[in-house]
Amino acid sequence: MIIGVPKEIKNNENRVALTPAGVTELLKRGHEVHVQATAGEGSGFTDDSYKEAGANILPTIEATYQKAEMIMKVKEPIEAEYSLIKKDQLLFTYFHFASYEPLTHAMIKSGAVCLAYETVEKANGTLPLLIPMSEVAGRMSIQQGAKFLEKPMKGRGILLGGVPGVRPAKVMILGGGVVGTEAAKMAAGLGADVIILDLSLPRLRYLDDVMPANVKTLMSNEYNIRELIKDHDLIIGAVLIPGAKAPKLITKDMLKEMRPGTVMVDVAVDQGGCFETTKPTTHQDPVFIIDDVIHYCVANMPGAVPYTSTLALTNATLPYAIQLAGKGWKTACKENNELKLGLNVINGKVVYQAVSEAFNLDYTDVNTFLN
């Protein structure tokens, strides 16, 4: 198969979808890999390193899309890329369709096959291609939250871990999944007073067993959330419903109950966000303030640490890319249900239920294309 790796052009996105090591693995199996010039520079991989691995370097993004049967990316295509996508071309990347209707319609119009990293799902319900970036984003949410709690950043002026004789900051984490767990580890390690809210009692029991003593658990409901926001300094939104919009757990009216300088970090922004006041921001301009509450809503948080993020992501995606390239997407998805669940849009039809429900679009059973 002919594989193309374009340079990411979303604001401050420095990750790349394939490392030189990944190029080597694909070439060993008889595939052809074309990488756009400078695609890996943001992650620390030079064009020469790709050439040494056997990739062909193409000068432009247009040439990369034109050449490839399968496009490997990190972030969803942005408007400048829509017209470059060809009918029947396989796109293997993060899409997060349910949070952005124009992208959904553009991919329907393109006639391409869209296989989304975020909905590839194992039999036990885990999301293997979302986990590595969730781990990065969860840890980064505390790093960024701690920074914006500083007074020069308009925060409350509180040190996350406190010092002897001064209480630490209070951190509230909405969601006990991968993001929430990693955020709790980081916050606890810095000495903060942490509470995790989740709807699942089995998950809360597990977290209660494995977390250190400065992490508490609580059932997630509106009453508990409204009580906690009054005195918590940093609030992390870490809720995920695979492929669907995130529920709005912090409403606009709740902001008036928070102390000035409270920081909210919405890691669920890719899926529409779990704060009612969320709107996507960038690393260039990461925060905005409503009712004296700081909102950090960067939609590609791991893009700020691209070396770590690229290696973590490609460790997870490469085995699936090898299957898709070796067997073609139809056979690979027939034989591997994890990949089949990643299919969101095929040849102009929405084949993922949560995406069709998000925008009241017609739904087509994915098996229609696989039989």
UniProtKB/TrEMBL annotation:
Entry keyword NAD: yes
Gene name, Swiss-Prot/TrEMBL: ald
This protein's UniProt keywords: NAD, Oxidoreductase
Protein name per its UniProtKB record: Alanine dehydrogenase
EC id: 1.4.1.1
Catalytic reaction(s) noted: L-alanine + NAD(+) + H2O = pyruvate + NH4(+) + NADH + H(+)
SMART domains: AlaDh_PNT_C (SM01002), AlaDh_PNT_N (SM01003)
Lineage of producing organism: Bacteria, Pseudomonadati, Bacteroidota, Cytophagia, Cytophagales
Domain (Alanine dehydrogenase/pyridine nucleotide transhydrogenase NAD(H)-binding) ranges: 149-297
A Pfam entry, by short name: AlaDh_PNT_N
Gene3D superfamilies: NAD(P)-binding Rossmann-like Domain
Coiled coil start-end: none
Family: Belongs to the AlaDH/PNT family.
Family annotation (PANTHER family): ALANINE DEHYDROGENASE (PTHR42795:SF1)
InterPro entries in the cross-refs: Ala_DH, Ala_DH/PNT_CS2, AlaDH/PNT_CS1, AlaDH/PNT_N, AlaDH/PNT_NAD(H)-bd, NAD(P)-bd_dom_sf
Residues in Alanine dehydrogenase/pyridine nucleotide transhydrogenase N-terminal domain copies: 4-137
A GO molecular function held by the record: alanine dehydrogenase activity
